[in-house]
Amino acid sequence: MQNNISKERNLKKQITEYFLSNPHNSYNQAAKEIKCSKSMLSYYKDPIEARRQILARSGKVEFPYIWRFCFEKRKPYLDKKETFTSLNKKGRAFIYACSKPRNGETYMSNKEKLLHKNVTIKQCLNKIWPGLEVNEKVSCQSIHPWTKQLDYHDDGTPIMSPWTRSTLTGKIINAKSSNVEVDHKDSNRFNNHPTNFSFTERFANAMKSDLSYEQLYKNCKLIIKNYEQHGK
C-alpha cells in the first residue's frame, strides 16, 4: 500500500514516461533528473528482473532453510481437538498402507504393492485383542505388545479394548484416539502382515519414522547422552 508521499511522487509513472522519451539515457543521468536512486529506477523499469535479483541476493534460493528461519513468520501451532474413530478405520489404514492416499496414489494402487494378499482387519485387530470382532460389540482384553501375554493395569484390572499398551512408550492408550496411530513395526507400510500391526502415540510414531526399533533406540540414546551432557 502506498503512503501519501509515494502517491504524490508517483515514481512508477515518472520512470516509465522518462525512459519512453529517453530510451538511451543512462541510469546515472535518469537518477539525477528524476531525483531517485538507481535501484528504484531498476525496480520500476523492469520489476520482474528486479525482483529476481532481490530474491537472489536475499539468500532465499541458495539458503532456503536459513531464509525461512530468519524471515518467515511461523504459523502458530494449532491445538488439535482429540477425536475418536472406529478400530475398523484404524485397521483399514494399515490394510491399505495409508489413512489418506498420498499424491498420485489411490487405495487400489497401494493394494498392488502390499506384500500380503487377503489380510483382513479382524486378523490385525486380533493381534492386539484376541477374539475381538470388527463390530466391537464385545470388548476383549489386550495383550502386551512385547510379551504377548494378557495385559493389565497397575491395579490388576484387565486392559480392555479399545485400550491397549503403546508399543513404543509402554503407556496405556485409547487406540480410537486421533492422537494414536497404527504403527508398522518394521517401518515398511506395505508389509501388511498382522504381526506387523501395532499402536503407538502420534508423536512417538513421528520420531520412529522409517527407522527400525533398534535404530530408534540407538538414536534416542545419542540424544539423551547429548542432552545430559550439554542441555541441563
Structure summary:
The chain is mainly alpha-helical. The chain has helices at 4-9, 11-21, 27-34, 38-45, 47-58, 64-71, 87-95, 107-113, 121-125, 202-208, 213-231, and strands at 163-165, 172-174, 180-184, 197-201.
The figure for the number of domains is 2
- Fraction of residues in β-strands: 5-15%
Q: pLDDT below 50 for ≥5 consecutive residues: which ranges?
A: none
Report the end-to-end length measured between terminal Cα atoms.
Answer: 48 Å
Reading the helices and strands in chain order gives HHHHHHHHHEEEEHH
Q: How many H/I helices?
A: 11
Please state how the strands of the largest beta sheet are arranged side by side. Answer: 1-2
What is the percent of helical residues?
40-55%
**Counted beta strands:** 4
Overall structural class, as computed from helix and strand content, comes to mainly alpha
Q: Residue-averaged pLDDT, rounded?
A: 85
Rg, Cα atoms, Å = 30 Å
Sheet with most strands: 2 strands, antiparallel
Structure description:
The protein is mainly alpha-helical. The chain folds into two domains: 4-71, no CATH class; 87-204, no CATH class. It contains eleven helices and four strands. The strands form two sheets. The protein has a two-stranded antiparallel ribbon with strand order 1-2. Strands 3-4 form a two-stranded antiparallel sheet. The longest helix is centred in the C-terminal third of the chain and has 19 residues, at 213-231. The relative contact order is 0.08.
